[in-house]
Design brief:
- This protein is mainly beta.
- It has three helices and 14 strands.
- The chain has helices at 3-11, 169-175, 238-247, and strands at residues 16-17, 26-27, 36-41, 44-53, 56-59, 69-72, 85-94, 110-114, 139-144, 160-165, 184-187, 203-206, 209-216, 229-233.
- It has a seven-stranded antiparallel sheet, with no helix packed on it. A six-stranded antiparallel barrel has the order 3-4-5-8-7-6.
- A hairpin with a 2-residue loop joins strand 12 and strand 13.
- It is globular.
- It starts with a helix and ends with a helix.
Length: 248
């Protein structure tokens, strides 16, 4: 039996999200987000991530730790879908500009290199990097395994999706005075619809390319009206990402 399946049989029924996540999402069509990654510490879902190459996953720098069980091709976390693959992350490269001690989310991006390349299937596919930044008003989608009702105690078993729009830089800066940099992009702001802390590192997909990683947002409850989610602006990091992958 494939070692990935053995690990899945150990993990099935034991997966538990560590923090609240997508608010008021709906179930994604199975395997419609084949780049979606779950980063696990033991049997606990720690963060999201996104596959960008057979050996490389992007996530948020503020997701602590560099050694994860990386689960790909997932839809249900509690039952075997027969599309799953599990890999171990071998090492990570955090952007040199990220400074956790300052409690700033600028340059909130990290690359994880997998010990063994994934097998590309209908359910496991890398997501292309952008060639340009997304304009305000662009329709995007986020995904993750998390609450649909804001309760800390209820986590859906199946991958959740939520459609959001990019908002203007001016609106973003007005919502978070003095905290937004050019390396961030905001999306959402509608009441009751948002990503939350446990979705960190998950993808913001716009027009079939990766435009953002879930990074941070409101200090209070997620999904407050007029308070968007803040994402790492991937278009600012394409050269850095490609250089790291090429040299490692």
């Amino acid at each position: 039996m494939d070692c990935s399946i053995l690990w899945l049989l150990c993990l099935i029924g034991l997966s538990q999200a560590s923090t609240e996540k997508i608010l008021n999402g709906t179930e994604c069509p199975p395997n419609s987000q084949p780049w979606q990654v779950g980063l696990f510490k033991g049997t606990t879902l720690h963060c999201g991530g996104v596959l960008i190459d057979r050996r490389w996953v992007l996530t948020a720098a503020h997701c602590s730790g560099s050694r994860y069980w990386v689960r790909l091709g997932e839809h249900s976390l509690s039952r075997l879908d027969w599309t799953e693959q599990i890999r171990r992350s071998r090492f990570s490269v955090t952007h040199p500009g990220f400074q956790a001690a300052l409690q700033s989310h600028d340059h909130d991006i990290r690359l994880l290199r997998l010990g063994t390349p994934v097998v590309l299937t209908r359910s496991v596919q890398p997501l292309p990097l952008p060639r340009a930044c997304a304009a305000a008003g662009t329709q995007c989608r986020i995904s993750g395994w998390g609450t649909t009702n804001g309760s800390w105690s209820q986590f859906p078993d199946r991958l959740q999706c939520l459609n959001l729009r990019i908002i203007s830089d001016a609106e973003c800066r007005a919502a978070f005075p003095g905290r937004i940099t050019d390396n961030m992009v905001c999306a959402g702001g509608l009441a009751g619809q948002d990503a939350c802390q446990g979705d960190s590192g998950g993808p913001l997909v716009c027009g079939g390319v990766l435009q953002g990683l879930v990074s941070w947002g409101s200090v209070g409850p997620c999904g407050q009206k007029g308070i968007p989610g803040v994402y790492t602006n991937i278009c600012k990091y394409v050269n850095w990402i490609q250089t790291i992958m090429r040299n490692n």
